[in-house]
Design a protein that fits this description.
Its EC number is 6.3.5.2. With 513 residues, the protein is of the alpha/beta class. The protein has three domains: 185 residues, Rossmann fold (3-Layer(aba) Sandwich); 190 residues, HUPs (Rossmann fold, 3-Layer(aba) Sandwich), CATH 3.40.50.620; 96 residues, GMP Synthetase, Chain A, domain 3 (2-Layer Sandwich), CATH 3.30.300. Helix content is 32%, strand content 24%. It contains 14 helices and 18 strands. The chain has a nine-stranded mixed β-sheet with strand order 2-1-3-4-9-8-7-5-6, sandwiched between helices. Strand 1, helix 1 and strand 2 form a beta-alpha-beta unit. Helix 5 crosses helix 11, helix 6 crosses helix 11 and helix 13 packs antiparallel against helix 14. It is globular. Bound molecules: adenosine-5'-triphosphate, xanthosine-5'-monophosphate, glutamine and magnesium ion (MG). The site of xanthosine-5'-monophosphate (XMP) has 17 residues, from helix 10.
Length: 513
Amino acid sequence: MAQTIAVLDFGSQLTQVIARRIRESQVYSKIYHFGTPAAKLREDGVVGVILSGGPQSVYSKSAPHPDAEIFQLGVPVLGICYGVQLMGHFLGGRVEHSKAREYGHGHLTIKKPGKLFQGLPKKLRIWNSHGDKLAKLPPGFVAVGTSENSPYSAIEDAKRGFYGIQFHPEVFHTERGVDIIRNFLVGVCRAKQDWTTKDFIAHSVADIRAKVGKGRVLLGLSGGVDSSVAAALLHKAIGSQLTCVFVDNGLLRKGERDYVRELYGKHFNIDLRVVDASALFLKRLKGVSDPETKRKIIGRTFVEVFERTLKKIGRTAEFLGQGTLYPDVIESVSIQGNPASLIKTHHNVGGLPERMKLKLVEPLRELFKDEVRRVGEALGLPREVVWRQPFPGPGLGVRVMGDITKDKLEILRNADAVLQEEMMKSGLYWKVWQSFAVFLPVKTVGVFGDERTYDYVIALRIVESTDAMTADWAKIPHDLLQKISSRITNEVRGVSRVVLDISSKPPATIEWE
Ligand SMILES: Nc1ncnc2c1ncn2[C@@H]1O[C@H](COP(=O)(O)OP(=O)(O)OP(=O)(O)O)[C@@H](O)[C@H]1O
Ligand SMILES: O=c1[nH]c(=O)c2[nH+]cn([C@@H]3O[C@H](COP(=O)(O)O)[C@@H](O)[C@H]3O)c2[nH]1
Ligand SMILES: NC(=O)CC[C@H](N)C(=O)O
Ligand SMILES: [Mg+2]
């Protein structure tokens, strides 16, 4: 059995980021429900426990609490934020609400490095996000690090292997955070660093086989990175029990349907069905302009088309495969007690209707994009597939602002094709996270060959990002922008103005709807 680090999830948006940092240290980790019995963790061969952050207050009635026995397991425990507060609450200290809320950047001064801060500078920039604080240390603990507002920013009981930190080592903004986590894993828990992408593949292949048995999986294959990697993984696990369906929803980019048919139908030996449902999608979307309503309609229609396709092929499938990634999950579901977390309904997660009869198989559900790409490369997928820019499931449906018509789609498709072509030519396509065009239903005045025009606007959205959780607009050379702009206004009928989106995420999201 693999040595496992258990991450108990108390509802933080950052729990998966903790898991990801652990994987970065080549250690195997598993996320558990906060209330998992200690006996189960022992059974799973857990060599260390991390308590995540969380939105609640440990002393409140509805607060999620762990099984108190986890502190008797005899394995090290690291509490992060809410986690250190839990340690205070359970081990005889005291937590209270603090007037001096700490949010954002702060500084940690390390008094005593111990094992957790081994090899790190005495002062570190850290990132905080808490309103409660430890007011009294539990017996056996000493303070080893302080911040502006917390005398107990880092605490330890080295004898029992208990460590607590009030800040978030898992976020990018905490200096040397990865090293702090690695120190816990390797220095304290003595975990072996032997967990690789290959192990992930072997593990998910076994999981898929166990779940699916002799059943059939119907996978929505979009030609994007996520579903391509999911297809390759499923194909490896269950071979001919996999049927892929590519839906032309009328909201695709120029040439996409042929690209997918060519690549997967011909080059890969995958059972691929191409379904043209564009008329149905466009009919349902007619006159609808609210973004969330559009997303829901698209999601519902997708599933309906899958079900209908099944009947038509005359095969029974019990499973629906999807290339859902962690960022899709976090932005689509509202996590217990965290009202802020629903941002958009990504059609593949929140948009699924309840009546859906198929069970979900989502082998990439816990990964981030760059990890998925590594899995894709290890599975031998071509570079052009693995490094394609992401394209959202609702497609051009959320890139035509407001209500959707064939004409608007056609204009957007042509403008977008120009942008992609120029990005490819310059090589920048592979360097940015996404580059795409957005159709604005705003008419502005122009002049073409001395004649007045009154036409639509195209916005260019080009962003840099590492995981789509945050993004910044890309600083594209002016001469390239000029070329793209003049080609669009010259070649695309119906457009007389091109604008550049210079918003970062947050506050703006990457897609406009
Ligand atoms: N046109 C489509 N036909 C069939 N399935 C689709 C289609 N579009 C999206 N899906 C399904 O919805 C899932 C989510 O779409 P999403 O865009 O996040 O992933 P992707 O297209 O596989 O990868 P990428 O993020 O690189 O575009 C896909 O993994 C796929 O299962
Ligand atoms: O599969 C998807 N279904 C969706 O409904 C969806 N909406 C946005 N995206 C993509 O997710 C990333 C973050 O996008 P936002 O900043 O717009 O939320 C960006 O990469 C977006 O392109 C989607 N992907
Ligand atoms: N990020 C956290 O874990 C916060 C913990 C707790 N809810 C607080 O506000 O202090
Ligand atoms: Mg896609």
